[in-house]
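C-alpha cells for chain A. Residues wanted.
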C-alpha cells in the first residue's frame, strides 16, 4: 500500500495496523490499544462501533446498498437532505452530495464558477482564499489551498487564486491587539475586493478556524466582516465546515458563532459520525435556480461521482444526527469544552509549549524550542512528529501539524478518557522536547 499524506519511509520505521475499535479506543493487530486522540482524522463523533449507527447501516443493507443519484434519487438521501437543511444556516436550502471534504469543495468551486456564467457574468472566474488555507487535495481544492509545504510542488498544475492575509493573532507581533490584527486583515481583503471584485466569483474560507494550516482561530468579528465584504462586493461566500461541522466547535456549525450566512457551505467528516464517506455541498435557493432551466440552455451542473448519495452512508448519517438530537450532544459538548480547557491549562507553563489554541473540541498545542526568544525547533528535527510517535508508544494516536500537536477527541469522550489523553500528551511532550534540547 501507499498511504495518504505519509512518507512511506517513516511508516516502514513505525508501522501501525488497526484491527478493531470500541468507543474511543483503537486496537492494533498485536492487541495494543490506543486512545483515538484525533477522532480518526477529525471524523469520529460517538466512538467506534456505535450500536445505533451500526444497526442503521445493517438495516439499510437489507434494503439496498447503493443506487445512482444521476437522474434518480433514493430514500435516505432525501431524508438526510431535509435534515441537513433544517440544521444548517437559514440561507441554505439545497444539498449536492459527494464523498469527501475535497470533493465537496471542488463542487463548491465549480458551482460558483458556473453560477456567474449562468447569470450572464462570465468575467467572474477567479477565487480568493486566505493564507494557510486548506480545503482538501483535489486540484481545484489545492488551488484555493495555501499551505506552502503541501501545495508548492503543484504550483503549475493549479489555477491561480488571490490570497488575503489570515488574521493570525498568535504569530503576530506582540505590539498588535486582536482588534488591530483583525481590522488590518479586513482592510487588506477589502483592497483586493475593490480592485478585483468584478473578476472574483467566490471566496473560500474555513469556518472560524484554520485546521491543517496550523489550528489558527480567527479573532472575534473577522468572519462576520468577511461575510459583509462578500455581500458588498458581490462575491459568493463559500464556507468550508468540513472540519468544524457537526459540533466540533461547540455549535452544530461554526458559522453560528458569528451568525454568518454562507452562499455555499461544505460538510463531510463528522456527517456520518466518522463511519462512511459522505459529503455535501449546501447552497442557497438562488444559486439552485440559476442552474434550473430547459436542458438546451446548457445550464445543467455537469458534475457527479459514482457513489454520490450512497444509501448506506446516508443511513449512517441519519442515525448519527438522530443521536445528536436525542442526547443533546451539542449541549454536552459545551461542558466538555470547559473540561478540556482546564485539563490543558497546566501545559501553558510547560517550557516548550508556546501556545494552546482551542475552539470547542478542536485543540492545537504548539511546541517551541525557546519561549523567550520565540525560537522554533529546527523543522528537520520534526519534534511534533516524534512527540506523536511517543504518544503512540504511551497509548494514544494523533497527528501533528508541524510542531503543533492536534488534540481533537471524539465528542463522546468521557471526562476520565479526556484526562487520560491529556496525561499521555503531556508526558510525550515532556519526554520529546527534553530530548530535543538535549536535557
Ligand atoms: N476542508 C477542510 C477544512 C479540511 O480540514 C479537510 C480535511 O482535513 C478537507 C477540506 C478535506 O477533506 P477530505 O480529507 O475528506 O477530502
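Reply:
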Amino acid at each position: 500500500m501507499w498511504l495518504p499524506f505519509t512518507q512511506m519511509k517513516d511508516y516502514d520505521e513505525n508501522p501501525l495496523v488497526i484491527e478493531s475499535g470500541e468507543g474511543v479506543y483503537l486496537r492494533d493487530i498485536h492487541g495494543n490499544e490506543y486512545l483515538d486522540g484525533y477522532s480518526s482524522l477529525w471524523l469520529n463523533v460517538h466512538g467506534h462501533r456505535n450500536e445505533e449507527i451500526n444497526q442503521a447501516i445493517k438495516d439499510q443493507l437489507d434494503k439496498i446498498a447503493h443506487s445512482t443519484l444521476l437522474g434518480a434519487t433514493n430514500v435516505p438521501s432525501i431524508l438526510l437532505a431535509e435534515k441537513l437543511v433544517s440544521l444548517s444556516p437559514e440561507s441554505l436550502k439545497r444539498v449536492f452530495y459527494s464523498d469527501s471534504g475535497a470533493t465537496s469543495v471542488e463542487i463548491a468551486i465549480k458551482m460558483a464558477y458556473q453560477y456567474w456564467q449562468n447569470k450572464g457574468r462570465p468575467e467572474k472566474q477567479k477565487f480568493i482564499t486566505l493564507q494557510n488555507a486548506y480545503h482538501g487535495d483535489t486540484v481545484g481544492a489545492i488551488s484555493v489551498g495555501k499551505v506552502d509545504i503541501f501545495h508548492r510542488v503543484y504550483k503549475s498544475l493549479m489555477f491561480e487564486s488571490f490570497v488575503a492575509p489570515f488574521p493570525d493573532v498568535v504569530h503576530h507581533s506582540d505590539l498588535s491587539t486582536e482588534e488591530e490584527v483583525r481590522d488590518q486583515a479586513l482592510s487588506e481583503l477589502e483592497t483586493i475586493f475593490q480592485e478585483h471584485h468584478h473578476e472574483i466569483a467566490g471566496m473560500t474560507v474555513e469556518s472560524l478556524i484554520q485546521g491543517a494550516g496550523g489550528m489558527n482561530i480567527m479573532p472575534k468579528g473577522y468572519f462576520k466582516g468577511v461575510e459583509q465584504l462578500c455581500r458588498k462586493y458581490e462575491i459568493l461566500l463559500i464556507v468550508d465546515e468540513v472540519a468544524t461541522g457537526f459540533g466540533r466547535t461547540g455549535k452544530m456549525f461554526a458559522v453560528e458563532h458569528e451568525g454568518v450566512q454562507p452562499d455555499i457551505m461544505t460538510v463531510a467528516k463528522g456527517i456520518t459520525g466518522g463511519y462512511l464517506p459522505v459529503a455535501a455541498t449546501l447552497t442557497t435557493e438562488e444559486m439552485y435556480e440559476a442552474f434550473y432551466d430547459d436542458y438546451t440552455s446548457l445550464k445543467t451542473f455537469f458534475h457527479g461521482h459514482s457513489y454520490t448519495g450512497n444509501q448506506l452512508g446516508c443511513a449512517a448519517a441519519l442515525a448519527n444526527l438522530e443521536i445528536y438530537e436525542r442526547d443533546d450532544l451539542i449541549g454536552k459538548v459545551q461542558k466538555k469544552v470547559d473540561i478540556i480547557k482546564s485539563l490543558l491549562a497546566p501545559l501553558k507553563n510547560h517550557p516548550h509549549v508556546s501556545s494552546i489554541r482551542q475552539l470547542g473540541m478542536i485543540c492545537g498545542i504548539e511546541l517551541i524550542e525557546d519561549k523567550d526568544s520565540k525560537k522554533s525547533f529546527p523543522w528537520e528535527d520534526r519534534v511534533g512528529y516524534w512527540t506523536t510517535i511517543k504518544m503512540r508508544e504511551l497509548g494514544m494516536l494523533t497527528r501533528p501539524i508541524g510542531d503543533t500537536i492536534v488534540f481533537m477527541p471524539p465528542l463522546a469522550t468521557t471526562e476520565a478518557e479526556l484526562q487520560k489523553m491529556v496525561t499521555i500528551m503531556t508526558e510525550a511532550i515532556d519526554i520529546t522536547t527534553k530530548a530535543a534540547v538535549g536535557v
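The two ends are 38 Å apart (CA to CA). The first strand starts at residue 18 and ends at 22.
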